[in-house]
Amino acid sequence: MRACLVLSERLIENMSVIILLLTILLFSMTFSDSVMVNKVSRDKFLELHNAERRRVGTQPLVWNTTLARSSAAYAAKCIWEHSKGKYGENLYRSRPRQNDTVKLAENSVKSWLKEKPGKLGPDWPCLKDLQCGHYTQIVWNTTKTVGCAVAYCRGTNPNLVVCQYFPAGNIIGRKPF
């Protein structure tokens, strides 16, 4: 009987260790490596955003560290949907893992710029279903600042780029510029 009690106690101790290890593993899988971009990447984000803004005649954006921190905090959650927060927001994801944040800046902004409508007409029909929403957020006339971050998430598309904008664009009933 004594042997059964000792065996039961050891089993309970081992189960506690196993549960603790599984909890740690599960907890570590829900988070990502989030990166505040360095100066070179920041400059690349600004360069690409502002080149298109120059083309359409809107003022250049300025880097906003508060937005970059907010972008990093949201990117770290590795959620592939907009945050629905108080800022405008563009998301981009890709694979395989890309450790070069300058390349991710280039790829993400170029992807968003591909949404540019073929004809920039007065009614902007693409805004009705937001087929060009990433593009219009980049060039939105009243937007003044941007901040971006990168996260490396688990899964099939490990690179996640989040750029947030203030003031937000894509206001229903208004034109981008």
Structural summary, described in words:
One of its GO terms (cellular component) is extracellular region. Residues 40-173 form the SCP domain. This protein has 177 residues and is of the alpha+beta class. 44% of the residues lie in helices and 16% in strands. It has helices at 2-29, 39-56, 65-75, 101-113, 133-139, and strands spanning 33-36, 62-63, 88-94, 145-152, 159-166. Strands 1, 2, 3, 4 and 5 form a five-stranded mixed beta sheet that branches. Strand 4 and strand 5 (159-166) form a beta hairpin. Helix 2 (39-56) packs parallel to helix 4 (101-113). The longest helix is centred in the first third of the chain and has 28 residues, at 2-29. It is globular, with a radius of gyration of 22 Å. 30% of the residues are buried. The model is unreliable at 4-8 and 17-31 (pLDDT under 50).
